[in-house]
Amino acid sequence: MTKRAIVLYLHAHQPFRIGHFSTFDIGENKNYFDEPNDMRANNRAVLDKVIQKSYIPTNRKLLELIQQHPEFKISLSITGTLIEQLEKWSPLTLESFKELVATDKVEIVGETYHHSLAFFYSLAEFNNQVQMHRDKIWEVFGKKPTVFRNTELSYNNDLAVWADRAGYKAVLAEGWDPILQWRSPNYVYRPVGTQTLKLLLKNYKLSDDIAFRFGDQNWESWPLTADKYAHWLNAIDNGTNINLFMDYETFGEHQWKESGIFDFLSHFPGEWLKNENNTFMTASEAVDSYDAVDTIDTPYTTTWADTERDLSAWLGNPMQQQAIEALYGLSEKILSSNDWALIEDWRKLQTSDHFYYMCTKWFNDGDIHAYFSPYDSPYIAFMNFMNTWHDLRYRLTEKGLDT
Amino acid sequence: MKILMLGWELPPHNSGGLGVACYQLCEALSVKDIDIEFVLPYNEVHSIDFMKVRAALSHSAGSLRISGIAYDSFKYTDTQGNEQWLSIFDQQKLYEQAAAQLTGYESFDIIHAHDWLTFKAGVLLKQKTGKPLILHVHSVESDRSGGNYGNPLAREIEQESMLMADKIVAVSQHTKNIIIADYAIPADKIEVIHNSIGKIDEVNLSELNSYKYLAALKNHGYKVISSIGRLTIQKNLINLLHAFKLVTDIEPKAILLFVGNGEQETELLLLAAELGISRNVMFAGFQRGKRWRDAYTIADLFVMPSVSEPFGLTPLEAVALGVPVLISKQSGVSEVLKNALKVDFWDVNEMANQMLAVLQNQSLKNELIVNGSKEYESMNWSKAANQLEEIYAKAVRGVSG
């Protein structure tokens, strides 16, 4: 009998945040992503903080767990923009990721290099960015991803068909109730319209217990201990694979060390493996081991964000729509410029985080989302973005590629 | 509970936000078990049914204004004419004496005085009756003088009265900080109660805007930025003009409309000419009623870049009327209003940058309007009234803090 597996998937990402960029900076050769004077938008300073709080201690812990438990495995995706930052500012941290991957207990999941929403705006650009990510992963880790996740776990039937044709084994997506209906997320599924592709759906209840609720002292289940959590998992009476998907930065950054998150991480695999019918699998092992039990139809786009589980956090208001449409409106001219620096700036502006910072839906409530924005308001985020967009356009006109 | 409230103005005889704030706060308090008698320094008929309004002095609001307004401390009237007018200082002295002569104050539980012009009267009444004194600070002298030292006599009145008071209410954290810094008042004696805004009359958009010329220009692609308030150093209008100059360099079809009067009017006119933007800057003078309201609704952006602003009602009025706002981070209102653009008052480039962003991006403008309106809908005075009720109760029980 095949064991029941946890598929633990972690996503590591940092954007290149835009610094203060005024109307009067347009045409002045100012770097968009360099903000030495603002700690929140200073990419190097933010990276240093996350390295200290999360990447280094988490990598160390995961390596220990791999050495301690032969069955412990994880899946990991790491964006091109983060790899670039690590290469530039902390090669040692990148080494610690390589060390982890070299154990062969860590599977790398594919995505877009720039953590972009290109799939919804330009398929050609999306394909370019997926290839760029594959090239980078091969160069740094010597691996070729066979499982794909799109930015923010955004997913629909079209993405499934794309991934199927591109030769991926599986796609990761949110196990959202309206899509699953009466089904459980704890099985392997097949997207409608695909030949061989399989779908792994996030168990959001159990994932978010760790990712969002772990440190919440008002939560009825606080404090969450490894044995309590393992008990919950063992009590599940259905399924073959429990998909726990979350940000890498959950460990030490979203949930601080003081919350006890690292102790939890240390003990949880051992607690789970006490039951000999339990194991861990990487995403591709899970889809190799289990057959799809049913097909899943996802006619509209789902993501892993907010209560709506849609793209509204990135594209919900007119500022966000204007900004992203303006950006993709330059595609043809930018790509025909053959100016790598210009193209690369344009791509870095596609990172979804820029649009997330412009979100107003939680601004009135003073929600914790504000913690993730380097700007005082969504309006400031929009102004900086649009001014960099005007600068891109200025650079195009300088080359005679008038828009 | 009975409150003797000492104030300087109430609408429609007000010179600015002080009268509006007093009126709306009292209205919210009257819903509770609180009786208010409001003492004014002038005698006019009011149609107010939620409290008793009494005049301490017999002259009219108009003759009082000749001596100065609630925001003045430097105003000394020209005495060369035939008539001899009292200065604003003499007026506050007169009010103090008249208030002391009021009868029936024994039945009050608390004395609640608004701003420096009424503070001495409040102190005198406290000494006579032994009733607790609450001072409500809507502005301090260093605000009124644009961050400078201001008038030493006004400062003296503020400091002495605050030392004597049982409790001080500040309209923002910004104001509380200034009180602590300027007058060395212990922080735990000062409570912050933010102002709010009452419901604004619905605007009938089919009505013709009073600024016909501006409406016509807008049909030709012009954008209008409005500044409504006194033309005085505190409002930072010199920096605003310099920033607006940068705006017109990039967006020549921009108009800056000043509504209000004040001692800086000539200086601003001359500076606009010097900067070569006279054609883009308009001065409409002090306005009330429809012309006042239309100055908001004609605007694509309302600006209040004050050097120091204890609270600042006008941005909330703008938001209420569906106009995006740009305010200085040094204003009390920026502590409560989220959906606004905010800038340091000295940062001329950034001020220009943000003004341009609104003029050039319809989606930014719309998003500010939509979310600002939602925020305005959730605003009312009941929170302030609840906080004040609690302070009253503690003061009557003799509890400090």
**Head-to-tail CA distance between termini of chain B:** 20 Å
User: What's the β-strand tally of chain A?
Assistant: 10
Q: Tally of extended strands of chain B?
A: 13
Rounded to an integer in angstroms, the radius of gyration calculated over CA atoms of chain B is 21 Å
| Share of residues in helices of chain A | 40-55%
Order of helices and strands of chain A: EHEHHEHEHEHEEHHEHEHEHHHHHH
Q: What structural category arises from helix and sheet content of chain B?
A: alpha/beta
User: How would you describe the shape of chain B?
Assistant: globular
**Coarse shape of chain A:** globular
Query: Using only CA atoms, what is the Rg of chain A?
Result: 21 Å
Question: Biggest β-sheet of chain A: count, sense, barrel?
Answer: 5 strands, parallel
Give the helix proportion of chain B (percent range).
Answer: 40-55%
> What gap, in angstroms, lies between the N and C termini of chain A?
63 Å
For the biggest sheet of chain B, the summary is: 7 strands, parallel
Number of helices of chain B: 15
In order across it, which strands form the biggest sheet of chain B?
3-2-1-4-5-6-7
Task: Describe the model.
- The complex is a heterodimer of chains A (403) and B (401).
- In chain A, helix 5 links the parallel strand 4 and strand 5.
- The N and C termini of chain A lie far apart (63 Å).
- The longest helix of chain A has 26 residues.
- In chain A, strands 1, 2, 3, 8 and 9 form a five-stranded parallel sheet that branches. In chain A, strands 4-5-7-6-10 form a five-stranded mixed sheet.
- Helices cover 43% and strands 11% of the residues of chain A.
- In chain A, helix 1 packs parallel to helix 3, helix 2 packs across helix 3 and helix 12 runs parallel beside helix 16.
- With 403 residues, chain A is α/β, with parallel strands linked by helices.
- Chain A is globular and about 65 Å long.
- The longest helix of chain B has 16 residues.
- By secondary structure, chain B is an alpha/beta fold.
- Chain B has 15 helices and 13 strands.
- Classes of the chains: A alpha/beta (403), B alpha/beta (401).
- At the A-B interface, helix 12 and helix 16 of A face helix 13 and helix 14 of B.
